[in-house]
Amino acid sequence: MWTHKAWQGRLVAHPLPAAERLRHYTGWCTAVEGNTTFYATPSRETVSSWAQQTDPDFGFVLKLPRVVTHERRLHDVDEPLRAFLDVIEPLGPRAQALWIQVPGSFAPTDVATLARFLRRLPPTHRYAVEVRHPAFFLDPRAAQLLVRTLAATGTEWIPFDTTTFFARPPTSDAERDAWTKKPRMPLRSEALTDRPIVRYLGRDDPDQSSAGWQRWVDRVAGWLQEGRSPVFFVHTPDNADAPVLARRFHDEVRARVPALEPLPQPAPVQPLTLF
């Protein structure tokens, strides 16, 4: 995500060699979603470059490959999972959580499969699950079944809050495109562990995005005051201003929790001059 075209020359310097792009992103945010690992497992050399560009306290939330979660649906996945874990080893503590996003067809009847999969995972990593089947949000028995399964292995439940996005009809090409692709997820805002992870989808209008995340400002501030370490990812339909909005969200939380460390200062996009 740190190579997003809309950021180049505007939020991060351009052109930049591949080995410097992530480093510039770390001036904006202290964590990143590793969504590309869902589509293809990177080389170990590539992951080593990520480690070299980031401090040990920078966080990657890396999505497991789709062959594991979608194609094989957590069955018979020892080989691709082992290969993935070997590749990300250079990240060390930067691999803040491994993100297990299961398909929308993964239903409460599949929770036993998830339980077996989670029990076999190595304890060297933290894990977080994102489900999209409506029953987990609308059926209290299904929700409790999933909560018990996750709690048994210290696994987090990642909510993807799209309620603000779907509250009004789309008004731009980017919003219309996202309208057909993004899931309409019921709101869920509980944490299961000391490191909750939230994904939030806003609108093109930054003020609408901010209005929609006010419940999360309250919740994240509360988590921090409880001693938890939450991660909050901000998305918009085209993600053009996502880093700016992420910093705005952080500032709003920090106004509630002054002890929260400030985010780093982004590197100048253009060289400084005397004129």
Which percent band covers the strand fraction?
5-15%
Ends apart, CA distance between termini: 34 Å
CATH topology of the largest domain: TIM Barrel
Anisotropy-based shape: globular
Say which CATH homologous superfamily of the largest domain is assigned: Protein of unknown function UPF0759
Give the count of helical stretches: 11
Q: Please state how the strands of the largest beta sheet are arranged side by side.
A: 1-2-3-4-5
Radius of gyration (Å): 19 Å
Which sequence of SSEs, written as H and E, runs from N to C? HEHEHHEHEHHEEHEHHEH
Please report the first level of CATH classification, the CATH class of the largest domain: Alpha Beta
The parts where pLDDT drops under 50 for at least 5 residues are none
CATH-scheme architecture of the largest domain: Alpha-Beta Barrel
Let me know the largest β-sheet. Answer: 5 strands, parallel
Q: Which structural class do the helices and strands define?
A: alpha/beta
Instruction: Give the % helix.
Output: 25-40%
Residue-averaged pLDDT: 95
Question: What's the structural domain tally?
Answer: 2
Describe the structure in your own words.
The protein is an alpha/beta fold and 275 residues long. The chain has two domains: 1-158, Protein of unknown function UPF0759 (TIM Barrel, Alpha-Beta Barrel); 159-261, no CATH class. 37% of the residues lie in helices and 12% in strands. The chain has eleven helices and eight strands. The protein has a five-stranded parallel β-sheet, with helices on one face. It has a three-stranded parallel β-sheet with strand order 6-7-8. It is globular. The mean pLDDT is 95. This is DUF72 domain-containing protein. InterPro entries: DUF72, UPF0759_sf. Pfam families: DUF72. It comes from Salinispora tropica (strain ATCC BAA-916 / DSM 44818 / JCM 13857 / NBRC 105044 / CNB-440).
